[in-house]
Amino acid sequence: MKIELFYEEIIDYVEQNFLIRPQLMYVDERTIDIKYKPNRFLPAMSIQVHIDSCRKDVVCLSYECSVPMSMIISGAIGHLGNKIPQGFEINTPNKRVVLHLDQIDILDKPLSYVELETISLHDNHVGISARLK
Fold first, then answer.
1. CB-CB contact of 117 with 56 (8 Å)
2. Predicted local confidence at residue 122, as pLDDT
């Protein structure tokens, strides 16, 4: 089974739910650049997210960003503390994120029917391959 999430759909969803409109730019099959410009007086904030590995129950990501952006991320993670949902393992010093899919509550139902195979990035969409259990 193949699922395609188009960048424009993701951008519209983020704007609708969080009132910000990021830019998503394809870098390569494993890397995407995410930019957001808060207003015309502040510079754009940018982060590159890289898919390091993907298994049926774990997705490993890493990110690269500027020092100020890294400080914002570290501060936000520190502030959220125990409010980060179960299944998200965030290591800010090493700039790594591990998603334990089987521990994320919202994924319980979908993962009871399908197993993740791969996640790949394309010019205009995120491709997700899964197989029925």
1. yes
2. 97
